[in-house]
């Protein structure tokens, strides 16, 4: 038996435009962010395979301004933080994926399992005209939305609950229990911004919560019905899944945070 | 001699992504925003020609979130504000141009000559990594910029001056005198936002001011040198023209404003 080749682990903070991809994870159906990142890393490692693990496996069409992943390079490749960032960015061109920051981490550190917080932002464009500048980046809702009512409804979801009603049928998590720490709704001109934070989320949880809050914003649901939908523990009791276009993974939290020195 | 056909004039507020266009004005070299708008308007007028006049003839690559133009339709076409907005948006698809609002105006009202104020926003992305989400929408400046020094320098340009030093050689304005009412510089995270307001601007004036302020932000120019460049009345005394990517025409002011009812 031989020991595995020694590795060095790098944490990277990443921004991407989800429109061009089948999602984070490799698929046979098209290009993924993971493939773009790992192929660029492999170029840095003279063609050897470099595997990655990510904090959040975003769906097709979902964007990120603060995704985090780690990459395992062969130990003998000479790297530093600027080289990892700039060389990965060079090799990922022209794909809309960039590394914002890179940090050397211990092999015990894991982008997914060390994460203690995920933050998402969802952007609704609330007006009659479609977006000329932000097509694929927002959810266009033409009927006027009451952000205050949506914010009131959001409070029913805060805390530790069984989120079965807001969970995709394909969700592979063992438990439907999650603790939602933040779900804020605010209006800024024609934009409705929803910020969600938790240690972790179920599959489609943010998009299902947003799709449900939109029913409240339109006046079709009273805010209290969101609490009833949660209590029902039945996906059919909540609203539809909002499109991926408006969703951004904005931050992943660690303690200690390798990106804060 | 016959009278010209009677017309009805509509003011439209427009958003567009400048990346796809040769600029506002029709050119033989490619597609312009004007052509997309006028061809859509012509469809509404059963194929008859509809001419437009705009408040700001933006250059290739420059964006707008609040451009204003007027369109002269034959008087007998039955129109109302929702029809003008929604039908133009339908016919302009899939081009990244949308009408946000439409208002019926007198034939004495002119989108260009009635305008008393133009507002532009310029967005610099100040970080090492290129933009994944905003390629073509920002000017990437990698060296750290001192926004405070830029704001101090900007004050030398406020007021009524001969702006020859900040004027494109191709500028067709009769006088180089302009009154700059606002030139604010602020930082928001990795963004440097510059807001400029005046009754009117010379050709490339905003981009030349931004290109000059960037030299101050990098520490290559002391702020006072911007005042000296202005006083020189010589284009070679000021800094280079910043790229169109970061520039947005955000608002055009009128008194009374047809869009404020």
TrEMBL record, chains A, B:
Domain Pseudouridine synthase I TruA alpha/beta residues, every copy: 15-113, 153-255
Listed CDD domains: PseudoU_synth_EcTruA
Active site per UniProt: 59 (nucleophile)
Keywords (A to Z) from UniProt: Isomerase, tRNA processing
Pfam families reported for this sequence: PseudoU_synth_1
Binding site for substrate: 120
Reactions this protein catalyses: uridine(38/39/40) in tRNA = pseudouridine(38/39/40) in tRNA
Gene Ontology molecular functions: RNA binding; tRNA pseudouridine(38-40) synthase activity
Principal EC category: isomerase
Residues in coiled coil: none
GO biological process: tRNA pseudouridine synthesis
UniProt-listed Enzyme Commission number(s): 5.4.99.12
Family of the protein in this entry: Belongs to the tRNA pseudouridine synthase TruA family.
Subunit structure: Homodimer.
HAMAP family: TruA (MF_00171)
Function in brief: Formation of pseudouridine at positions 38, 39 and 40 in the anticodon stem and loop of transfer RNAs.
Protein name: tRNA pseudouridine synthase A
Organism this protein belongs to: Gluconacetobacter johannae
Gene that specifies this protein: truA
């Amino acid at each position: 038996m031989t020991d595995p080749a020694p590795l060095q682990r790098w944490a990277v903070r990443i921004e991407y435009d989800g429109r061009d991809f089948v999602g984070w994870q490799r698929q046979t159906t098209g290009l993924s962010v993971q493939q773009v990142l790992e192929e660029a890393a492999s170029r840095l490692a003279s063609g050897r395979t470099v595997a990655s693990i990510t904090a959040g496996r975003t769906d097709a069409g979902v964007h990120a301004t603060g995704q985090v992943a780690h990459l395992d390079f062969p130990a003998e490749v000479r790297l530093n933080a600027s080289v990892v960032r700039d060389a990965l960015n060079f090799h990922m061109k022209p794909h809309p994926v960039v590394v914002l920051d890179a940090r050397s981490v211990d092999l015990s550190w894991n982008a997914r399992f060390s994460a203690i917080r995920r933050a998402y932002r969802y952007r609704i464009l609330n007006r009659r005209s479609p977006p000329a500048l932000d097509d694929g980046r927002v959810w266009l809702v033409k009927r006027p939305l009451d952000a205050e009512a949506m914010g009131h409804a959001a409070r029913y979801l805060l805390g530790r609950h069984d989120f079965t009603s807001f969970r995709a049928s394909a969700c592979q998590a063992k438990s439907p229990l999650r603790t939602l720490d933040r779900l804020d709704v605010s209006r800024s001109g024609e934009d409705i911004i929803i910020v969600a934070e938790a240690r972790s989320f179920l599959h489609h949880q943010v998009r299902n919560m947003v799709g449900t809050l939109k029913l409240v914003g339109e006046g079709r649901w009273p805010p209290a019905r969101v609490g009833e939908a949660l209590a029902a523990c039945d996906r059919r009791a909540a609203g539809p899944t909002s499109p991926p276009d408006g969703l951004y993974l904005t931050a992943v939290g660690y303690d200690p945070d390798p990106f804060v020195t």
